[in-house]
Amino acid sequence: MVSIKNISAFVAVAQSQSFADASHRMHLSQPALSSAVKKLEEQLGGRLFSRSTRRVKLTPEGAAFLPVARRLIADLENAIFDVKQLFNLEQGLLSIAAMPSFAEGKLPSLLSSFGYAQPGIGVRVIDEVMENVIQSVIEQRVEIGFSFAPEDNDLVDFTPLFTDEFVLIMNEAHTLNQVENLRINDLSGHAFVAMNRGSSTRNWIEHTFEQQDLKVKVAAEASQFSTIGNLVASGLGVSIVPSMCIEQMRAKGCVAKQVDGLNIVKSVGYITSKEAALSAIASAFISTLSL
C-alpha cells in the first residue's frame, strides 16, 4: 500500500530539487527521506528521480506522477479539513423527521436556538406521520425523529421530552361546545373525524372508546391532523387530537376542550437508531433539547 507519507516525501524533493532542502522542510533526516522515496519507487516499479552529485531531476515517469501526487495530497488535506469542520460544527447537515404537529409547533424554536449558535449547519426536516418518522430513523434516512413513544420497537431508542394529553376539538357552533364539563359519554352518537385506520392515534382512540363501551360514528378519515382540523372546522364532525395541536386547531377556527374520562396521555420525545452512531452535529443538537 502506497503511503501518503512517501508521496509527500516525493513531492517535497521534486519541489526542492534537493534532498537536503526537502528533509529540512519535512523535519526528517536525509536518510529517512531517501528511504521514503526509495520505498515509493519500489512500490511504483521504477525510478522517479535521476540523481547526480549536484542536483536531483525528475525522470519522465516522475514528472508524469508529480501532478497526480499533488492532487492526492490536496484531496487528503481537503478531506481532513472538511471532517474537522464537521466535528467543530462549522458545516454539515442535520437531518430530522417529525410528526407534523411537532414540526409546526415546537420544532421551529428548537432549531432556531440551535441555528443561532451553529450558523454553518444546514437543516433538513421531513414532516410525516408517527409511523413514517420511526421508519425514517430505522432506515437511517434521518438521524433524529420526533414522535410519540414507539410501541414494541427494538430498533430505536426513545428519550421522552414531555407528555401530551389528547383533547376534543369541534367548531364553535357544535352542540358540545355548549357543555361546560364534558364527559366521554357525551361524545356518543356524534359524527367523528378520525385518523386513518392502522395509525397509532386511531388505535388509541378506538381502544379508549371500547373501554367505555362507546361507538365511534366515523364521518371522515384523514392522515394528517391539519386536514382533520379543516374538516372539523367545516362542521363535518368532532375529533380528538394531541394538545400540541391546539394552537394550530384554533387558527383553523376550532374549539379545543378537555374531556373527563378520555385519559389519552402519551410521551413525546426523540428517537434515534440503535444501529447507527450519531454525527457530531446530531449529538450537539440533542444536547440543546429542553422543552
TrEMBL record:
GO terms for cellular component: cytosol. Residues 2-59 form the HTH lysR-type domain. The keyword Transcription applies. Keywords: DNA-binding, Transcription, Transcription regulation. InterPro entries: HTH-type_LysR_regulators, LysR_HTH_N, LysR_subst-bd, WH-like_DNA-bd_sf, WH_DNA-bd_sf. GO terms for molecular function: DNA binding; DNA-binding transcription factor activity. PANTHER family: HTH-TYPE TRANSCRIPTIONAL REGULATOR YBHD (PTHR30419), LYSR FAMILY TRANSCRIPTIONAL REGULATOR (PTHR30419:SF30). This is LysR family transcriptional regulator. The lineage of its organism: Bacteria, Pseudomonadati, Pseudomonadota, Gammaproteobacteria, Alteromonadales.
